[in-house]
Structure formats: C-alpha cells, structure tokens
Design brief:
Order of helices and strands: HHEHEHEHHEHEHHHEEHEEHHHEEHEEH
Oligomer: single chain
Structural class: alpha/beta
Radius of gyration: 31 Å
CATH class of the largest domain: Alpha Beta
CATH superfamily of the largest domain: Glucose-6-phosphate isomerase like protein, domain 1
Strand content: 15-25%
Number of strands: 13
Number of helices: 16
Shape: elongated
CATH architecture of the largest domain: 3-Layer(aba) Sandwich
Length: 335
C-alpha cells in the first residue's frame, strides 16, 4: 500500500461532501426510475401467500440482509438467503408460493445466475434489483427494479457506495409502500420490537415491573408502626402500602416518611415511635396508578410528582402492588 497522503482539513471536508453529493444524485436517479414495475412488485408481495426471500452476495448481500430485516419488522415475512448456501442445499427452504428478490448491481453476478435454473423449476416469482433492466438477471425475473446507478462515489469508481445506497433506499421504499398498504401501525411495529424503545413505550405494562402478590408490601391500617417498619426492612422496596379491612389502598409509608418521623420525634424513645399507630405516620390518600397502565405512564407520573415508589391498584381501588422508579429506569424507559 502507498503511504498516506498529506491532505488538508478542507480537502477532507470537500471529499466527504463530494461523496454525499454523488450518493444524493444516485438516490435522485433511483427515485426518478420508479415506475409501474415498482407497483407490480408491491402488488405481488401483498397478494403472496408465501414468504419474501432476498438473496445477494458481497455488498449486495449486506444490503439484502438489511432489506429483509426491515421487511420482517414491518409486517412482511422475509428472510435472507446467501446464494452460495442456496446453491449447496438451502434452496430446499424455498416453496412455490414464495417470492425471491435477487440483488445484483451488475445484473451479471455468477452466484446469483447459478440459482436461476433451480428457482425457475421451483416456480417462485422473481424480482430483481439491478443497475439496469438490460442485464441477464433482470431479464430472467418477473419484475425488474432498477437503481440506474452509473458511478460510485469514490475517486476510483470501484467501491460499492452510490450503488449500495441506492439499492438500500429502493428496498426501504418497497418496505414502506408495503407498510402503508398493510395499514401497519405503531402498535404493530412495537409488537415486533418489544426490546426497542418504542416497544417498551407501547407494550410494557406497569404490572410487568411491579411487585405484586406475596411481594406486595402491605400492612393493615389498624397496625402499629413497628409492623410497617418490619415490612420495610423485610421487602427492601422503600415503601409500604397501607390497606383497610377490604384491601382498599388508604395510605403509604416510605423510607422518607420514616426519616421525617424520626426527625420530628427526637425526644421520643424508639419503642415509643414503634408503638405509634400506622394511621398517624402514613401519607393518606396516596397517589396511585392502575396496574394495567403502561409503564411509560407510570414513569411520567412519578417524575412529574417527584416520587420513587408508586402503589398499584385494581379497578376497584384495591392495593395490588408497588412499582419503583428505579425498576422503570432500569428497564430502559425514557420520557
């Protein structure tokens, strides 16, 4: 390799802008070439009862994997098949009702061409993404999508840059068109992304992160403070729900309440403090949230009111659990 050339800051910036300019031009060309073939591709996928299989090699394969992932996450069952693996047995995974999309910038990629006879015999529908429709792969497919990319963004015009960008964008356009036609909504996206930020916001219930059942820290409103203190120390949740004889939430005692109680009763003995009625220590009519609420709602509520523990109630107002701000933030929730 040659030694690194000594280039200036302005030259670096100019080079970067040149790359982006060339890729923008490639995207504009791909946009202008969208025609009835694109519509046919959308309709074919929507009408299909099979899966959408994408194949490509090299940079086209990397782009193909991304397109398959985008399709799968937006309601179109899709997966990527490496052409070499397909050629050596994995074509057995493909069924007649499937659609196969072949990606090749040149349209003459040998590994893709080798798949065509078998794909034809299986009877699948074929879509191609190539630079031009005047190539072997495009001519052998039922539908031909073209990027029109004539040059790459690097000075030598050999590194897949503009072509891969245009191909990926065309795949995104297809995915979004299918998404719109399927009536795909935020909730559907969240269902396929339960671990993502949107999935957590739309799917994660406060009850998924709460302490309920035997873990619910509760004491009766008729109890002494020593009973509440025992539950505080045993459960280590920072709060105790106070309930009446019917299980209704009537109060809460938090670690903060205990500190304020000790500060207020400096002249009293520990035993005297422990014998205080719970009703004299608790915060009455505490803020609470229904256990069916979304976790993000609980997070917003707790941050708004500057509280670290929040009681959970059912539709009747009965105490069913407790959720902590700590657990909501640990789950990756953000406002």
């Amino acid at each position: 390799m040659n030694e690194k050339s000594d280039i200036s800051r302005n030259e670096i910036i100019s080079s970067a802008k040149s790359v982006l300019d060339k890729e923008i031009q490639a995207l504009e060309k791909a946009r202008d070439l969208i025609d009835d073939e694109f519509i046919k591709a959308v309709e074919m996928v929507l009408e299909s009862r099979g899966r959408f299989i994408i194949s490509g090699i090299g940079k086209s394969g990397i782009v193909g994997r991304k397109i398959a992932a985008t399709l799968a996450s937006t309601g179109t069952p899709a997966y990527f098949l490496h052409p070499a693996e397909g050629f050596h047995g994995d074509l057995g995974l493909i069924l007649q009702n499937d659609i196969v999309m072949l990606i090749s910038h040149s349209g003459e990629t040998e590994e893709i061409i080798n798949l065509l006879p078998s794909l034809k015999k299986i009877g699948v529908k074929l879509i191609s993404i190539t630079r031009t429709s005047d190539c072997l792969i495009a001519r052998k497919c039922d539908i031909s999508l073209v990027t029109g990319t004539t040059g790459e963004a690097d000075p030598m015009n050999i590194v897949p840059t503009s072509s891969s960008t245009a191909t990926m964008a065309l795949g995104d356009a297809l995915s979004v068109a299918l998404l719109i036609k399927r009536g795909f909504k935020e909730g559907d996206f969240a269902l396929f992304h339960p671990g993502g930020a949107l999935g957590k916001r739309l799917l994660l219930s406060v009850s998924d992160l709460s302490f309920e059942g035997d873990e619910n820290p509760v004491v009766s409103v008729d109890s002494k403070f020593e009973d509440a203190q025992y539950i505080l120390m045993k459960k280590h949740l920072g709060a105790v729900n106070i309930i009446d004889s019917k299980g209704m939430l009537v109060g809460i005692i938090t670690d903060g309440d205990v500190r304020r109680l000790l500060e207020k009763n400096k002249s009293s003995t520990i035993n005297e403090i422990l014998q205080l009625p719970v009703v004299d220590v608790m915060t009455k009519a505490p803020k609470s949230i229904n256990r069916e609420a979304l976790a993000i709602e609980a997070l917003s509520f707790m941050q708004k009111h500057l509280i670290s523990q929040l009681p959970l109630v059912d539709d009747d107002g009965k105490s069913v659990g407790l959720v902590r701000l700590l657990d909501l933030t640990r789950a990756g929730l953000r406002k």
